[in-house]
Amino acid sequence: MTSPEWERRPWLAAYGKDIEARLPEPRYASLAEMAHTACTRYADRTAFTCVVPNGMNGSLTYAQVNEMSDAFAAFLRIDCDLDPGDRVAVQLPNTLPYPVVALGVLKAGCVLVNTNPLYTRSEMRHQFTDAEVKVLVIVDIFANKLADVIPDSGIERVVLAGVPEFFPRVPEFIVRTVQKVWTRALPPIPDLPIPVTRIRAALAAGRAHKADAQQWWQGLERRNLALLQYTGGTTGVAKGAMLSHGAMLANIDQVLAMGRAYMDRETCVLTALPLYHIFAFTANFLAFFDIGARNVMIPSPRPVQNLQRAIENYPITWITGVNTLFNALTNEEWFTAHPPRHLVAAIAGGTALHAAVARRWQEVTGKPVAEGYGLTECAPVVSFNPMGAESRPGSIGVPVPGTDIALVDDDDAPVDPGQPGELIVKGPQNMDGYWRRPEDTDSTLRNGWVYTGDVAVMDEEGYLHIVDRKKDLVLVSGFNVYPNEIEDALAKLDAVLEAAVVGIPDEKTGEAVRAYVVPNPDHAGDPLTRDAVIKHCRTLLASYKVPRSVIIRDELPKSPIGKILRKDLKAEVRREFETA
Amino acid sequence: MITPLETTLLGIMMMVIMLGMGASMTWRDFMLAFRKPRGIIVGLTSQFLVMPALGFALAMALGLPPAMAVGLILIACMPGGTTSNIFAYFSKGVLALSIMMTTASTMVAVVMVPILLTFYSGLAGIGAEFVIPAGNVAQVLVVLLVPTALGMVLRKVNPNIGATVELIGSLMGVVVILFLIVTWVPRNYQMLLDTGAPFYVATIGIGLAGMLFGYWFARTLRQDPNRARTISLETGIQNGPLAVLVITLSFTGEMQQDVLFIPVLYSLFIVLSSTLVTIWYRRNATREELARDAAKVRN
User: What's the distance, Cα to Cα, between the start and end of chain A in Å?
Assistant: First the structure.
């Protein structure tokens, strides 16, 4: 598979003194054991604080999380009569019940199926039947979807949790009253053919058994399945990536290996990305839990103003985000006037971080954004920029310890150094395959390598640069145009807030570049025009890369974590040219 | 006649409202508002230059007797009312701007209201017996700024308590108007029936004229429609209960009752007219949102 060039592992030199090239010996047999150990060791510390937009908040200590997740495990195993390995779907925003329920599922020896709360009814039905979910924990503001989802889904019990759940009594009452009366966010619970329990009642039932949760997780091994993490909505139906306890624990160690030198007891991480997403799940939730940090959770990060009170009121030292979040924050006056004082590091993943955004972030906060890269199939972290090193804009860093990578061409042959090729990954964090989809597994997981579908180049020092998604390439007169490069150029124009680039059919050149741009509302100069965009691009890009078509929009389609969805724009283009 | 007990109650309620207003913001919000002061300056201008002039002009044009004229001018000179924040919220306006305008105008009022009152009372040729002592107004305002500061401290110390106090404060804004209606209207219903149209024109007109002007002025100075609607509500909605409090501290007996007439009627009608305007604004805001969405689909 790999050629000698790749076996040389040129990136090891970039680790410097902060990063151990060898992963530590496995410390735990399961995530449940990791959680139990952390909760015992850091018992009195605050583990989670959930902050709603008006500043009201609630917190749980490590000891509380331990006791409550034990109770939830007992509820699942005894009251719901689940067996080890049974799937439990968790459809919660970043709220205090999330860690309690997620760790409860893992301690019960069951498999966690993270589910986006914003999913439509049909997406929910697909995921729940595909995973054969037995118990669903869902946030009460979306309970109205249940009537269409539950019948014939095989789900045997529903647990409801609220956004202000486990807040002090008065704030909980106020937030709930506001939801009920003011914003009308609380729908009535539909009549269902199965039992529906509120989370507090579920915990009370679990506690009543006075059972020792250890009995359910003691036998777990690293090879056992921990998560079914659904992904790949871009190509047809979502598939469940099977992530074992071992893969998750390895990725925690890999994240900590990269960042440990910059984390201490005072670490306080801002979690604005949703925890049901694998990036926040591994990095924000598990890795920081392992070291006893405090996690400040934002239930709904949009509008970005919702983060204001959290950033003002807590000594945030770490922020994880995606390009869109960093872009939005640096466009907020309250943020630029008072950037978080205690900030140690900001890390970006999920989607390419634009150079202009990274630069503005550093100007505003005085700290660089370290960009990383990962995918659900790798639990997810594959590479990161070493924090101590000089920041390299545009690079996704070097492979994390214990990870091998190679860049290959369409014939699976390793490309020459400096040439673009598909990034393939081998490491202890790799998934075991897609749940009950052998063909998909075979096409993505070959000889222990995960084929990422991303085209990358590696420089001499081992730093990786993602060129683009293999399937997002625009082919203009036979030249490869990578949308990221054009988007980066567009983001440099002050009048542009954000941009996305896709290909459109073109009679002469086969495909041509189309740019969707959103004007920056705070830009004081001339309004954004098509001509200004094209003129700007001419100064930065070769002529075949300059957009042929420019469309000015107020907003771009985005995923729940704020990734710009090129696939939606492509679908739009398809419709447009089919009808034309 | 409002009894001393009622005056005390009114004072306490005002303090709770101001405590809530203070708790709704942080020192940083406050500093921020003054970094980009255009909206606030626009608001303060319409609040303290235009509104008092409007009040004076209306009083003159309608030929109001001195007691009523004082009431109208006083209402016109008042800083923004805290209920404006609730209306700003419901009209999908810019809540932060509304809160900042209310706070800023309350602070500026300490200096401006006594000056404006003296100026316009003199201009209107109002007899000495009807003149509100400037010191009274300043005193009341300073007293009210103390709970505002306290509210800010509360928010800083404990965000949960702060946000709770904020909520109680805005509910109190509604309670205080109900309180005024309940304590004043039954005793004066005969007077309400006997009152001629000019008085109603004055009480309802001052609020509506303020809103109209605020919107036009803000749009002229290139504020976006959302901010303009917020400034409009902020300009039209004055702190009626504060005017009532000042009057009860300055006058007694029959005279108090007469001067109170317009401020109390104003407090009553402004709730009704702001509700209607808010519904209309909200509809506009929604339509603009939908238009933006549609623009996205059609490109």
Answer: 46
